[in-house]
Amino acid sequence: MKTALRIAVIGSHCTGKTTLCHQVRDTLVLRGYDCRLFEGIGRRIAARGFPLDQHCTMDTYFAFITAHMTNLAAAPSGISLYDRSILDFAAYVRANANASPGFDEMLVALCRLSLISFDLVYYLPPEIILVADGQRNTDIQYRSEVDRCLVDLLEQLGAEYVSVVGDTPIRLQRILQDLEPLLASSWSG
Questions:
Q1: Residue 79: beta bridge partners?
Q2: What's the predicted TM-score (pTM) here?
């Protein structure tokens, strides 16, 4: 019987990842499954005074790497749901174009390592309108560039992932349908 399941939900900013992750977690918990959500890395890093988005520094990048890899290593038994992964982060680094080729090479290696750890990867394309909330970047061209870099990275890595489109209820239904056979065959709630 499987004791751990790791699910990553990835995409550029303002694509509905956090909302979807909360709904997946809440649904699984209501069904009796142990599900932990890893979220909020960017907000925690910003709260520590690190600049985000196009203003990231190498110190910001190292803080992100540390947080992502710590979350991956800390996954308990049960279901671990990741709102973002090192893959998202690498896409931002590429969109910012302010890191050395050697740093990018290291990120690609970390992405490969994290992909081995994930059982399922869901990609959310930018379908949602950007809303100014004082936290998120509202530059639509920047979001498009991050998204392009993420899709390019997934292709470069030959990653297996599922693109999930539509509103939140449709996305939730898709993920739960994918989980049904996994949970029924190898999990006890």
A1: 5, 35
A2: 0.94
